[in-house]
Amino acid sequence: MDMYKIAKIWFAAVMLCLISSLVILHVGMSYFPFVWMAVGVIVIYKARHEKNPGLSTVLKVPCILMGLSACILSVYMPSFRMPELSILLAGISIIFFALLEFRPLLLPSSIPIVVAIASRTIRPKLASLVAPLVDLTFNIVSTILGLFIEIQTRGHTLIFPAREGTIMRIGIDTSCSGMWSLGAFTIAMLLVLITFPYIFRRWAVFFSLGFMGTYLLNIIRVTSVCLIGYYSASYEYVKFAHTHIGWILFTIWMIIFWYFFIIMLLKEQKARKPEKENAPDKER
Q: pTM higher than 0.85 for the full model?
């Protein structure tokens, strides 16, 4: 069975499930789809470039049991949102690849389980962990807004009169700190480094720019939400913008960033091929 072709079909099915859940089931928007996109790219790459040694019964049975456990865990968790859906999809993926004996695809397809459980475990402790990031975001956004409109601050709340005279109050909390977009970018980067460990040193500056761009995008998002409140004087518009602007901007940024990464990586690999081909000649 063609592992590469199956991996592409699997990735399409997973993305269809995620999109359907957002539209039909209303499980709530998060950055998990971007984690799955990174996982999908790694799975497809491994299916294309790695040989499949198969899977013995000794390994197949534990993998199937692990997948079943993940599925059961997702169903019995207190709520069913994107993290729980990710655990369910990952469990099904593990069972699917174990039955087909696609050994190289088991590890990357299980990563969303770790990410989902970590997000649920760490979330209650995030307020204290990201407090400095919240302060930094608040100070930067209030400074930028102060250049255009009259603004007052109280705690982490921005207070300003809208164009119609309505007083708007918009709070900056942990969801505005950029931690989720930075976390999603970090996971995607780690997945890439696991697949291409030799690029870490040479690409450190490039990934640093990725972190900076991701945080800058969050500043643009929060500032845009406040300006929408200023011009519309409507909390409904503010809520809508807060829900959707982030993932739209992040999607565009991820497409641009990883597109240039793939282009540059392919050029680097193409340049290294002649060196590998000439290496045996030099030894002779």
A: no
